[in-house]
Fold Epoxide hydrolase.
Amino acid sequence: MGALVKFIVLIIALAVGNVIYKINQHPPVTVPPEKWWGPGEPPSKEDKSIVPFKISVSNTVLEDLQNRLKSARDFVPPLEGVQQQYGINTKLLKTVVDFWLTKYDWREREKFLNQYPQFKTKIQGLDIHYLHVKPKNVPSDVKVLPLLLLHGWPGTVREFYEIIPLLTTVQKDKNFVFEVIAPSLPGYGFSQAAAKPGLGASKVAVVFKNLMKRLGYEKYYVQGGDWGSSIGSSMALFFPEHVKGIHLNMCMSNSLLSKMKLLAGSVWPSLVVDEKHKHKLYPLGDYISNALLEFGYMHLQATKPDTVGVGLNDSPVGLAAYILEKFTTWTDPAWKNRADGGLLEKYTYAKLLDNVMIYWITNSITTSMRLYSETINKEENAFEEMGPIQVPAACALFDKEIIYQPRTILQDKYPKLVQANEYDGGHFAAFEVPETLAKDIWLAVTKIEDLPPPK
């Protein structure tokens, strides 16, 4: 009997050892090739010019928009007693559209959007648009650190307008300040869309590495949320010699070890998450149910973006409904139970419509949604980890974010995690709570700058 027990123990030990071995194995990091994404074949000589850009929309486009808003069909009334549970409430939508028609002044908003210097430059065949805001009156003993700000979907660079001055203004207690570069993702807003299939998030990381190189930056920080988090993580993974550190809102680890921890926490939550934050992750069934409720759009955009895009690109009312619904439930899931969707709690209709307008005037909703189909596929392996990221990282964990993971899980992907602070707020942190996000960025970069140099 003793020999049998020893044999069973040996088998269990070998099985556990095999699991641990597999958990710690990662495929080699393969940097995507620098493909030409523009139409046709690349020219013999690369155009490296950087051209100033200003938003300028013709009266014809604005008149067409007005006509479409005025001639929109009557909305289907919501069900009795329903707020936003079936999607955007059409009574709320009518209020927004009425504001759009009677109070929203695009020429005034155009001046607002042009307040920061903007440029375009061609990277891998695509005209990439970006804001470039430098700090003013910088003392000689204060370092200027380049910071690449990356947005996601259904956002645009509009999300960053309130946070930019908080990052580019010298702080009394800091020996550094930020110089902000905020590009529009390819196919979003004023950045050109790929003419060829395949431009997923990991390949966008290459585009933005080349953008920063074009601007003359060898080392810089990256901050991002949503797709910006994914792209920023890819930049840190592929180009650690250039990325000094990353700061993300909406951090996520998909490694096998992380999944095992998540499941183990279903039985023993304290292994994974603090008691006061347990409700954000467990019961796991509730967490998964909410994901199913909110991620239907992802399946559509990962499979049939062009079909969805036809309707949204033809109707400004439909476009606003599709986008603004996300600013309700992704800012606070409880707002689906409010007739007003809670939109004016953290935003204004003018700010929200700025974002919608950027999609409308550039005809970019279809091309923006293609990022899902180009990333969530077998080639890109969006839900598989390619290995831990070895540059210093920080995560701002907002309690109403659509994806929540605690530090114990995030450290699997970001072993050099300097902080993972918890805050009140939702998915669009830079837009919703710019002061909170800016403060966390300052804190994280201070810690990273104080780290001893890598050997």
Summary: The chain has one domain: 53-255+295-449. Confidence is low (pLDDT under 50) at residues 12-18. Residues 39 and 195 are 5 Å apart (CA to CA). The longest strand covers residues 126-133.
